[in-house]
TrEMBL record:
Family, per entry: Belongs to the helicase family. RecQ subfamily.
Domain Helicase ATP-binding: 43-215
Domain (Helicase C-terminal) ranges: 255-406
Gene3D superfamilies: P-loop containing nucleotide triphosphate hydrolases
Annotated organism of origin: Pisolithus microcarpus 441
Name under which the protein is recorded: DNA 3'-5' helicase
Keywords recorded for this protein, A-Z: ATP-binding, DNA-binding, Isomerase, Nucleotide-binding
């Protein structure tokens, strides 16, 4: 069905202040001297005749541009759509410090009392989740159709706009934002803001929100963060050991020793984050183990707010977190950010890396720890081993074909001596040629992971980005299948040193986010294809100084990446003795649970709740849950093994479950079994 055209009301433009007037008023109200590009954002929103795109790096100050228009529209309201509830609360708190009333509306705060206050225009800023804004027949839909309410709206801002396409699959309300233009008068501009909009994501976002080039203002800054060092490391140890993170807490570290750098470790699995935090805690003295925490969406709002405060104050050394401590979280002095495993896409990775050193006077480090099978040298070695095995089989096949008795025996068994499948291995599943347990799945006949030619470089990366965008537009592979594979651009990042024309991790991000098209971009070391624009706006921003404005001046990175400055990353490596290969676990056949199995499961659930409360306190049980002691998968594995009488000692428990706390709590669990 053809949709009607968006509302075509003729916009009415109040008088727009000059840039100097905007700057003066902002300095008086917020105590901050806004940069030229921030003034241009505010000017575009105040003029109200065009939609706005704002692309700028993490920590550059995009949010200030959201609030400046409030100062010049008495009674006006700014509506900001944000993906994370924590961001909404953070924004409301920062506005309150400037004397501006704001409210964050999410599932917890969408109360009758709060909407009554909104109706009486008590709040000048409304920060809302897409689910609440686009809820069918919801409170916001009613107000967006009310001319009295919409007459007060200055603009609607979609913050972290890359989520429109990146998160649309599992948060469909993001795609429902397309209906905004069919509800709002055209006099209300829509702005999208992000630090990680690729060319493809930007095109999709503009189409989704019906933002037409003829009425569009684009303010674009580089997304580069020159005060962040970028590195990639190969995971050496077993994935579930987390031993590659041991360098964070040196052996024998004790209270009074120099503190580790304030750090964040990002995971794409909650249980991974919990397990890694517990591993690092064990490396601390008993009285210090609560200095490392985990942080995820399953925790209560009260707990998360408290933990953010502890982290900001330095009472917590580091967090093992998921996306919950991500976009927009403003902690200025994080020195080290780690992404554990190459399980995300490059824009998400850059968002996470951008949590480091938001204070520009500091230098931060960001590292991707990637699985070894994604590195070109490991791929080449694997391919070589495969060819050797095929060569051996071929020789054996030729030899056997000249020996009549073996061939006859093969025919008697209904097989042929030459029907061995290429790539098949006589080794047990999960074992490599050295006899060690491998973290990767058994080798398939056809590689499922993208394996580019090693000499691919800058031109190939740019072409690959365009090709990937075209493939997505033509339906392509289902989303579930794509998620199982390494993101194409992440492949280039991991193997940048082998790609002719790249040879730089930072350049991969520059190409992905088109930083050469951004105003104010200066060339980085060894990145000669990035161009200097004819007018660098940091000079326009502060004409009284020959070097221009220090805040928006983009300087070359003094330390670029581990390819150019490997010595800067030598202290970020772990040296932990590799444990002997774990004995194989039992294979558990399917079975019908007995009453005893249900009794054991209930007993284990009760035990882990009581233990969590006794060891960590009831508030941890309430906020984090009993998985802090024993995760659900371990509990179910114990029940399965107990059914088949596989666990009678602590060693059995450790072998069958790989439970990290088996030594500490194994005796109690055995008594329940």
């Amino acid at each position: 069905m053809v949709q009607p055209a968006p509302n075509q009301d003729i916009p009415a433009h109040p008088c727009t202040p000059t840039l100097s007037e905007i700057r003066h008023h902002v300095q008086d109200k917020f105590g901050i001297r806004p940069c030229h590009w921030q003034l241009k954002v505010a000017e575009a929103l105040l003029q109200g005749d065009k939609d706005v795109v704002c692309i700028a790096g993490t920590g550059m100050g995009k949010t200030l541009g959201f609030w400046i228009p409030i100062l010049f529209r008495p009674g006006g309201i700014q509506i900001v759509v944000t993906p994370l509830n924590t961001l909404g609360r953070q924004s409301a708190a920062s506005l309150a410090r400037a004397g501006i009333k704001g409210i964050a509306i999410n599932a917890d705060t969408a109360t009758t009392a709060n909407f009554t206050a909104i109706d009486t225009f008590e709040y000048r800023a409304i920060i809302v989740s897409p689910e609440q804004l686009m809820k069918p027949s919801g409170e916001f839909e009613k107000r967006l159709k009310n001319p009295l309410f919409t007459s007060r709206i200055i603009s609607i801002i979609i913050d972290e706009a890359h989520c429109l396409t990146d998160w649309g699959e599992f948060r469909p309300e993001y795609k429902e934002l397309r209906r905004l233009r069919y509800v709002l008068p055209m006099s209300i501009p829509v702005m999208i803001a992000s630090a990680t909009l690729t060319k493809d994501s930007l095109t999709n976002a503009l189409q989704l929100l019906h933002m037409h080039p003829s009425r569009l203002v684009t303010i674009r800054r580089t997304t580069d963060r020159p005060n962040i060092k970028i590195g990639v490391k190969k995971i050496k140890y077993a994935l579930n050991s987390y031993a590659d993170l041991a360098f964070l807490i040196p052996p024998g570290w004790k209270d009074g020793d120099p503190l580790p750098p304030k750090f964040l470790i990002f995971f794409d699995d909650i249980q991974d984050a919990i397990n890694a935090a517990q591993y690092l805690r064990r490396r601390l003295p008993p009285g210090m183990q609560d200095k490392i925490k985990w942080f995820n969406a399953n925790m209560t709002t009260t707990y998360k707010d408290a933990e953010v405060t502890h982290f900001v104050l330095g009472e917590t050394l580091g967090l093992a977190t998921t996306e919950s401590f991500g976009m927009g979280m403003d902690v200025p002095d994080i020195k080290l950010v780690i992404q554990w495993r190459a399980t995300c896409k490059l824009p998400t990775l850059w968002q996470r890396f951008g949590r480091a050193a938001r204070d520009k006077k500091l230098t931060g480090t960001s590292i991707l720890f990637a699985e070894k099978e994604f590195f070109d040298d490991e791929r080449a070695a694997k391919a070589s081993r495969k060819m050797q095995r095929q060569s051996v089989r071929k020789r054996k096949g030729i030899k056997n074909s000249t020996a009549e008795p073996p061939a006859k025996r093969a025919k008697l068994n209904g097989t042929s001596a030459t029907t061995v499948q290429p790539g098949a291995s006589s080794m047990p599943n999960g074992m490599n040629v050295e006899g060690e347990v491998s973290d990767s799945e058994p080798e398939p006949d056809q590689e499922s992971t993208h394996m580019p030619v090693i000499n691919q470089g800058l031109d190939e990366l740019e072409g690959a980005l365009d090709e990937a965008a075209r493939a997505r537009k033509s339906a392509g592979r289902p989303e579930k299948r794509r998620k199982r594979e390494l993101d194409l651009v992440m492949d280039y990042l991991i193997n940048a040193e082998n790609r002719v024309g790249l040879k730089c991790r930072r350049r991969v991000f520059d190409v992905c986010f088109e930083n050469n098209a951004a105003g104010g971009k200066l060339p980085l070391p060894l990145c000669s294809r990035l161009t200097v624009p004819t007018e660098a706006d940091h000079l326009v921003c502060d004409t009284e100084r020959a070097v221009g404005c220090d805040r928006c001046r983009i300087t070359p990175a003094s330390v670029c990446c581990d390819i150019h400055h490997p010595d800067e990353f030598t202290n970020l490596m772990s040296s932990v003795p590799k444990p002997p290969p774990a004995p194989p676990r039992s294979r558990i056949p399917k079975y019908d649970p007995s009453p005893h199995d249900h009794t054991l499961r209930n007993a284990l659930e009760e035990w882990r709740e009581q233990t969590t409360s006794a060891v960590y306190g009831w508030h941890h049980l309430n906020d984090i849950g009993p998985c802090i002691v024993m995760c659900n998968a371990t509990l179910e594995r114990i029940v399965d093994c107990a059914h088949h009488h596989k666990i009678s000692t602590i060693q059995d428990l450790k072998r069958e479950t790989t439970w990290l706390d088996a030594d500490q709590y194994g005796g109690e669990v055995l008594s329940l079994i």
